[in-house]
Amino acid sequence: MCGVIYSVWGHYSAVIPLANSATNLYISAIHTSGLWETDYMTTKRYAYFVSDGTGITAENVGRSLITQFPAIEFEELSLPYVDTPEKAYRAVAMINESKRGDERPIVVSTIISDEIRAIIQNADALMLDSFDAFLGPIEKELSALSNHEMGQTHNIANEQKYQSRMDAVHYSLDNDDGAQIKNYADADIILVGVSRCGKTPTCLYLALQYGIKAANYPITEDDADNFNLPRPLQAYRHKLFGLTIAPNRLAAIRHERRPNSRYSSLRQCADEVRMVEAIYRKHRIPSINTTHHSVEEISTRILAEVGIKRKML
User: Fold this and answer.
1) 186 falls within a domain
2) What is the pLDDT confidence band of residue 274, given thresholds at 50, 70 and 90?
3) What is the CATH number of the domain that holds 171?
4) 195 appears as a binding residue in the annotation
5) Per-residue confidence (pLDDT) for residue 179, from 0 to 100
6) DSSP-assigned states of every residue in 29-62
7) Is position 193 annotated in a ligand binding site?
8) What's the number of domains the chain is made of?
9) Residue 250 lies inside a defined structural domain of this protein
10) 278 and 172 housed in the same domain
11) Residue 154 within a domain
12) Does 33 have pLDDT greater than 50?
């Protein structure tokens, strides 16, 4: 099996099969490239996110912790579906091999099985077991035992909730870039802004993460008639949320798509940003500047500002 390497926001990712493919265990290795600028030498440590399910929870918890140490360069490796003793022993061997002198790897684990957890905990590493840390106190507080079933967070056991999320994703895809304005009555929110300011990825994140039906509409210089709202949006002003962006950042993004064009020129970008911000002010449309925010931050800030309840799916 060949690994597929791709770039995501400055990280390089690869899906790598273990030497013994019979175990059916794959490692999603994410290497954080580049060094943070500091006044002293950076060091490199290994961080493993180990799970008997998708590994998404372990990754989220682990990254939230290690990003608090910007002076350290981390080699991040996700080990999902470690759900048999054989896979667990192979994972321990891999973790131990990455130890460098006295510098142990860091392991964030969300494994449910007591047998497999016991194997993983034999690794020569700093072990951060999320379930050990939290399930015990919760069981004590609730006077109840957890069911110790793996994969409860990211499965499709609740088909209604899963279908709601998939419906939202399809809605966002069908209503991207002003494609289906006839469906705006069904939208939970409609994002507006200039081309390439982050509307599409934000809509898809809102749909996939929260089951929110998010449409988006591009505002162009043709819409600048006295800074009025484009006609398709006028009936839905209460659903609108604006995105804006620094002109130089917008120009850089557009240059990747159409280099050395009027579309990507700094002057054109500055004119469009001024226009769209004037429209937001005139029509009292809430907005956020996306320049220095990730799609996760943009999405959660939008939900907090407009008061849409997050659908925890």
Assistant:
1) yes
2) very high
3) 3.40.50
4) yes
5) 87
6) EEEE-S----SS--EEEEEEEE-SS-SHHHHHHH
7) yes
8) 2
9) yes
10) yes
11) no
12) no
Residue 164 annotated in ligand binding: no
Residue 197 assigned to a binding site: yes
Residue 307 in marked binding region: no
* 299 labelled ligand-binding: no
Does 199 carry a binding-site annotation? yes
Q: Are residues 231 and 298 in the same domain?
A: yes
Q: Place 133 in a pLDDT band, splitting at 50, 70 and 90.
A: confident
pLDDT, one tens digit per residue, over 168-204 is 999 999 999 998 898 999 999 999 999 999 999 999 9
pLDDT number for residue 221: 87
Domain assignment of residue 109, given as a range: 5-142
pTM above 0.70, yes or no: no
Q: Is residue 149 part of a domain?
A: no
**161 annotated binding-site participant:** no
pLDDT in tens, 287-297: 999 999 999 99
Taking CB atoms within 8 Å and a gap of at least 24, the contacts of 99-107 are 99/124, 99/125, 103/43, 103/45, 105/45, 105/46, 105/47, 105/48, 106/45, 106/46, 106/47, 106/48, 106/62, 106/66, 107/47, 107/48, 107/50
Domain boundary among 96, 115, 142: 142
